[in-house]
Amino acid sequence: MRIVLLGPQGAGKGTQAQRISRETGAKHISTGDLVRAEIKSGSELGQSIKDYNDRGDLVPDEIIIEMMKPYLDEADSWILDGFPRNESQAEALDKMLTEIDAELDAAVALEAPDELLVERLSGRRTSEATGNIYHVEYDPPPEDSEEDPGPFVQREDDTEESIRRRLEVYHEQTEPLKGYYADRDILAQVDATQGISEVTDDILESVEKSP
Ligand code: AP5
After folding, report:
1. Looking at ligand 1, which residue's alpha carbon is closest to its atom 2?
2. In order of start, what are the domains of the chain with their CATH numbers?
3. pTM for the model
């Protein structure tokens, strides 16, 4: 399985990629996680990309492409979460796939209206121990769990201002990629307003059906 998850912030790309990865063994590659890890490391690169992340702007293409490149070749089966986000990244992905003689099976777009996304992102909590994603109401963090002891924290870029900016960037630059993949007949659209398990089922079904 080699799939790209498209969709606005809060549609559930990270949530679904974690679940599908657990279920199928496919590797979850999240460029957002790579960006946050680099920032947390305190490296020079991390410092140079922190402002983009905090504002909700895209990190420059050449940086993000170099960051994620090594991971593509690491596994035969993967789910890309947060990449590509514009046409130039999509073209770079095509080039990297040609280099490793691989093809995309599907691009799955998670569809949900902006109003719902702001509510989901404001209630998001991420485990510092495992990176697992939760929601205070829809998918509460476990209490007293050895598997995931937490702490469960809010992401620094989950401020209302940054969320609005990320959605703007999504509609301007990432949403047009649906056309890019529809032209190749590998686009699947999934209703992401459903419950978390229903969305997972629909994604897996759409990937099975893909040519
Ligand atoms: P990134 O980490 O990718 O953040 P994002 O794009 O803002 O996406 P999110 O993680 O916010 O949304 P999600 O769809 O994964 O939602 P989630 O599953 O958590 O990127 C961060 C930054 O890194 C960017 O702003 C940029 O600066 C940089 N960056 C990353 N990739 C880049 C690239 N390719 N190029 C340039 N820059 C890049 O779900 C959200 C909440 O909703 C959770 O609480 C979850 O529990 C809940 N939820 C999920 N599904 C459901 C459901 N069905 N029902 C109820 N609740 C649900």
Report:
1. 32
2. 2-209 (3.40.50.300)
3. 0.93
